[in-house]
Design a protein that fits this description.
Largest sheet: none
Structural class: mainly alpha
Order of helices and strands: HHHHH
CATH class: Mainly Alpha
CATH architecture: Orthogonal Bundle
Helix content: over 70%
Number of helices: 5
Shape: globular
Strand content: under 5%
Low-confidence stretches: none
């Protein structure tokens, strides 16, 4: 959800660079995520919020009639969309890697509802 908030505050390009930088530091300094998953993490946590959720969800809802409630709704919708799309990307990446013990559809059925619920709770 931080990627969407950074995109709102900094714009999509700066937000993507900030998230990518944070993920590189986490991988190299804190061994969080690791180098092998760095590309997927940057895609899921940087690209999706900055270049998909922000322009297509946030901007389409927030533009037009400005107001606090509309901006809040746009931020929550974009963050939830980003979280669910990131979960979908994780399922696809894991399935394509051949390391998944679950078939695609059961894995998807487990991931998406959980992340949708997380997104809604965190958003409000």
């Amino acid at each position: 959800m931080g990627g969407v908030l950074l995109a709102v505050l900094l714009g999509p390009h700066a937000a993507f660079l900030a998230i990518a930088s944070i993920l590189v530091v986490q991988a190299l300094v804190f061994a969080d995520g690791g180098l092998l998953s760095l590309g997927c993490n940057i895609l899921n946590l940087g690209f999706i919020p900055s270049y998909l959720a922000y322009p297509f969800i946030y901007k389409s809802i927030a533009c037009g009639f400005p107001g606090r409630s509309r901006i809040a709704l746009a931020a929550v919708a974009a963050a939830v969309f980003s979280l669910v799309l990131g979960a979908l990307a994780v399922v696809m990446e894991t399935t394509f890697s051949g390391l998944s013990a679950l078939p695609f559809l059961p894995f998807l059925a487990l991931m998406l509802p959980v992340h949708l619920a997380i997104g809604v709770v965190e958003g409000w």
